[in-house]
Amino acid sequence: MAKTTGEALKAVKDVLWTCIKHHTPCHGGKPTTLPSRVIDVGNSQDDIRVFEPKGAEGIYFTLSYCWGNKGEEAKTTRANIRRRLQKLPHNELSKTHQDAVYITRQMGVRYLWIDAICILQDDSTDWATESAKMGSIYHNSMLTLAAAESVDAEGGILLDRPSLVSDARGIGMTVTEQPSGIQTKIAALCCGSVVKHKKWSNCVSSQPHKVVPQDLEGLSLESRAWCFQERLLSNRIVHFTRDEFFWECQTVKYCECGEILYNSGHGPGVSTIRDDFQDMIATKDDKARIKSWMWIVSESSRRKITFQKDRLPCLSGIAKHLQNEGFGEYYAGFWKVGLLEQLLWTVEDFSSARRAKRPSAPSWSYASIEHSMFTFQFEDMEISAKEYLTTIEEVNCTPLTTDPTGAVAGGLLRLSGPMLSMRLCFIPSLINQPKWVVGLSRQMALQLKRSQSDQAIGSFKADFLVGYKREGLDDDQVNETEESTTTTTQQETTVRLLAICKSQQQLSNGQVNKLICLVLRENTGERNKWERIGVVVLDENDDWVSILEEMRIISIDIV
Fold first, then answer.
1. Does 238 share its domain with 107?
2. Number of domains, the chain
3. 361-370, 382-391, 455-464, 528-537: range with lowest mean pLDDT
């Protein structure tokens, strides 16, 4: 851990220039086409401005940080852009922005890209155009500065460091990377006690660690969906915390205190989400690629986002990057390759989920659901085999903006497969329960039946509170009277089950066969169009074989 901020920045600079000089997989040491706008950090606080390079080349840094609800005055708008092209007053920048400008200048780099400053925040056209480039902006920058622990734009990057112990282990550290044998002198002061690395790993051992969101305690940045994309796509990124900095590039990982030194023969190795992403790109196996993509979607959904409509835009840069790697056609958050597999997403807590009033995606896309985390549990390794029963006849989407992998205005999915009508029954009395049983009661309140007198069949996983007059009912609105619930809730409706696949699950006591179906209801706004409302799993107890025999092959349009 460095004694001063200056020593810490010197250490970062040492690692950066070693990476540029010796790490073949890590590009970014040469000038590249600059973004549409950048900050010219100048030579002092009085010499800062917004610069429009108009295609010129240069080297620049990027900033990854939490906006929070502060820093509004730092935003560039149509009203102040002309003035900022002449001069960007230092006192108009938030603390995090000021620190980023200072670090960039101290590292000898002239340009810096910050979204709030370099995109016109009150111009929807400019935002759509520039946000569509964010993936390449972060990927092409020389280095991303990550304000890992700051909860908002006023938190800063260069935080006050804890008091140092007196029994320092030594000034400076020589890193020897394997197998290249390259040695790097890092000018840092390693203190007597090593920083605890729960932020970066889930244990301290000789085995590789896996960095997952729940292990990154205290790091506000890792809770944000936009920052997830920024971390995956950055060629190099340095995370600044109160204790130390942590470096990630395509070749190595360093922590400032020296406990983590991946690929160097010193300390435990660390496998991060960036390694998983690189493995995803490297493999040519479509099944492995799609499984990794479903992991990305799930992980992104676990992170906070200010505007729910940004669920697809905040993955757009990753999608473009993967398209360049040969992933193929992309529709509303899904790849055409392995599309049937991806359609089997489920919400983790449908009691808080709701269908968007103005959907930013078709119903068959997870992005049509707000306020929920998504999982693809049917791709679990426990299911050893699947036999797909449905085929894709057509799929298309209409982009909402000029970004082809961003938000969509709508989309159509035409499937042909075994289908059967069912009754979806609603049990209003199960909705009016105390909040602590809301999730369970709401799930039980939706039952699939062949007829009104039959027993409920299958394990129905609804996408949202289907059938209630307000299909996105919040928890604080649950405790209504029995009468009001009954008058605002349908008693039953006709739905269709579309059999997607048969699965075989190998258990210790034998093999279990299941039928996995989409549950569809007729769309009220478009004739002969249907919308997804959930997924149901049928097993032997539901006599799924006879149900499948009753089904007839039908072509259906889902919007």
1. yes
2. 2
3. 382-391
